[in-house]
Specification:
Distance between the termini: 67 Å
CATH topology of the largest domain: TIM Barrel
Bound molecules: acetyl coenzyme *A, 3-methyl-2-oxobutanoic acid
Number of domains: 3
Number of helices: 17
CATH superfamily of the largest domain: Aldolase class I
Strand order of the largest sheet: 1-2-3-4-5-6-7-8
CATH architecture of the largest domain: Alpha-Beta Barrel
Structural class: alpha/beta
CATH class of the largest domain: Alpha Beta
Radius of gyration: 34 Å
Largest sheet: 8 strands, parallel, barrel
Length: 557
């Protein structure tokens, strides 16, 4: 790279002075009109453009998501494009409330072919573009300003004439001064006014003026100024829909679109997950879900975002990044301990509050709203903490480990993660749990049977009587205590010489993850001061308690 990039690159400096700009202090309160250009701008950027089968599949999904305006093709570009438009109409695939849009250059033959593709359409938007910026005037067209105006005017006039040959169709016209964002504002305004002079739109039959950031050359605030300036200066503002079409060359297309809406735009053109030329068009999924998570109905719906991703990946032949906003397969997942801790506490608080309001640390959207499961919210590796491990055990097996046991178990999981050097799946964690706490471990102490839990003896004392298998031997045991835990511990101490003092005992009913109905947890201290933990899981809470004692004893036996 150059040490003096100023010798090669010139900053984009907008000539617009807008000291009384209004957009910075506005808030978005409603969704714009959306136009998906996946099948046109997205498609033209693919190494292998979609065939009719893939286009139909994409189109059906766009309809299912709720798009009402879809740019379906550049019909004069190829036979596939032309045939696709015909297929939509001949197969009756355009719902009443959906309008298809097609794009053309400002060339008479291409315009004629474009209208030919639409014969028989109930309604359609025909979109004509030509570049207007100085660089393009000079390099691409070799034309002066007035010649570029003539190019646009001849094209939009041809559109009008072609449309008159098909009076049965309800036509809407759209014009894009391509490269708007680096066109002189007065020239962009002049050419759009001349286009409107031809079309004579009204408030009842508006035209669409689409102001693209064809190549993103400045920060979103600059684009917003351009849009606000244009909205203020265009005549017949009530007879035009101002549309924006931001590309993502600087990585700020979403911000550009949002700020352009603040600045007065009514409509946004873009693609799902930001496909499109170079770094892509603005990502409509992100824009829509940004609105949704501000409590605004976006007018689009993604009840299974995973299915949308799969369809888009199939049709485009391109992957959606795992970190893609809202849709990436990792974006609802925390691996790191402090994030996991906060999310787990957030879910607990959410359940307690029970008011339906989403206030979740680190998770801007409820994954369930877009069809994602909570299981993937927390995944465990060597960056994880006790909260994450406890979450996985709870989601997978329904066990709510007491805090001290979480600390103990997470230490073990940490060692395992370090030694395996990989993510630990729920089954790895459960295997470690079974091993660590001797769950169903016949090498240690196993409950063979016991007598109805316990019976009252003299005074408040309780008696535990049962048989315990230890090292392949069944041993009859009896113990007394002021409860089941102490009676069982006393039986173990008498029969096997294992002495444990209880620090904490907890139990709960199980809701999911296992057929068993109860879980019991024991935290004990040995005579040498070290702590051991036990867990018991059973249909019956008393049996779970006894098993928890045996589990703790196993750690010492
Ligand atoms: C920013 C955007 O995304 S715009 C959309 C771009 N999409 C596409 O280009 C995909 C579909 N395009 C195509 O299939 C082809 O380019 C076609 C069918 C439109 C035209 O193909 P060709 O006739 O072979 O022309 P080609 O693309 O090579 O060259 C463009 C010519 O059109 C001219 N041109 C470019 N844009 C426009 C325009 N909007 N209006 C009128 N003329 C234009 C160029 O100046 C050039 O003219 P020249 O040959 O006199 O120098
Ligand atoms: C045709 C226009 C709208 C375009 O695709 C662009 O400027 O990026």
């Amino acid at each position: 790279m150059l040490t003096n990039p100023e010798t090669k690159y010139r900053p984009f400096v907008s000539p617009i002075e807008l000291p009384d700009r209004k957009w910075p202090s506005r808030r978005l309160a409603k969704a714009p009109r959306w136009l998906s250009t996946d099948l046109r701008d997205g498609n033209q950027a693919l190494a292998n453009p979609m065939d009719v089968e893939r286009k139909l599949r994409f189109y059906d999904m766009l309809i299912a998501c709720g798009f009402k305006e879809i740019e379906v093709a550049f019909p004069s570009a190829s036979q596939i494009e032309f045939d696709f438009v015909r297929a939509l109409m001949e197969q009756g695939r355009i719902p009443e409330d959906v309008t298809i849009q097609v794009l053309t250059q400002s060339r008479a033959d291409l315009i004629a072919r474009t209208f030919e593709s639409l014969v028989g359409a109930r309604k359609a938007i025909v979109h004509l573009y030509n570049a207007t910026a100085p660089l393009f005037r000079r390099v691409v067209f070799g034309m002066e300003r007035h010649e570029i105006v003539d190019l646009a005017v001849s094209g939009v006039t041809a559109m009008l004439e072609e449309s008159r040959k098909q009076p049965g169709t309800d036509w809407t016209f759209e014009y894009s001064p391509e490269t708007f964002c680096f066109t002189e504002p007065d020239f962009a305004l002049e050419i759009c006014e001349r286009v409107l002079d031809v079309w004579q739109p009204t408030a009842e039959r508006p035209a669409i003026l689409n102001l693209p950031a064809t190549v993103e050359v400045a920060m979103p605030n600059v684009y917003a100024d351009q849009i606000e300036w244009f909205c203020r200066h265009i005549s017949r503002r009530d007879a035009v829909i101002i549309s924006v079409h931001p590309h993502n060359d600087r990585g700020t297309a979403v911000a550009s679109a949002e700020q352009a809406l603040l600045a007065g735009a009514d409509r946004v053109e873009g693609c799902l997950f930001g496909n499109g030329e170079r770094t892509g068009n603005v990502d409509l999924v992100t824009l829509a879900l940004n609105l949704y998570t501000q409590g605004i109905d976006p007018g689009l719906s993604f009840p299974s975002i995973r299915d949308v991703v799969k369809t888009v990946e199939y049709c485009n032949g391109l992957p959606v990044h795992p970190r893609h906003p809202y849709a990436g397969e990792l974006v609802h997942t925390a691996f790191s301990g402090s994030h996991q801790d906060a999310i787990r506490k957030g879910f607990a608080a959410h359940e307690r509050r029970n008011d339906g309001v989403w206030e979740m640390p680190y998770l801007p959207v409820d994954p369930a709203d877009i069809g994602e499961s909570y299981e993937a919210v927390i995944r465990v590796n060597s960056q994880s903490g006790k909260g994450g491990v406890a979450w996985v055990i709870e989601q997978d097996k329904g066990l709510k480990l007491p805090r001290a046991m979480q600390v103990d178990f997470s230490r073990r999981v940490q060692l395992l993660a370090d030694s395996t050097k990989r993510e630990l799946m729920a089954e790895d964690i459960w295997k470690e749990f079974v091993h660590a706490y001797h769950v169903d471990d016949i090498e240690s102490f196993e409950l063979v049977d016991y007598e109805g839990g316990f019976r009252r003896s003299v005074g408040a004392e309780r008696v535990f009587t049962g048989r315990i298998r230890h090292r392949e031997r069944d041993v009859a045991v009896t113990g007394r205590g002021n409860g089941l835990v102490s009676a069982t511990l006393s039986a173990i101490a008498d029969a096997f010489g294992v002495t444990l003092n209880v620090l904490d005992y907890q139990e709960h009913a199980l809701r999911r993850g296992t057929d068993a109905k109860a879980a019991a947890y024991l935290q004990c201290v040995r005579p040498d001061g070290t702590q051991v933990f036990g867990v018991g899981i059973d249909d019956d809470v008393a049996a779970a308690t006894v098993k928890a004692v045996l589990s703790a004893a196993s750690a010492s036996g």
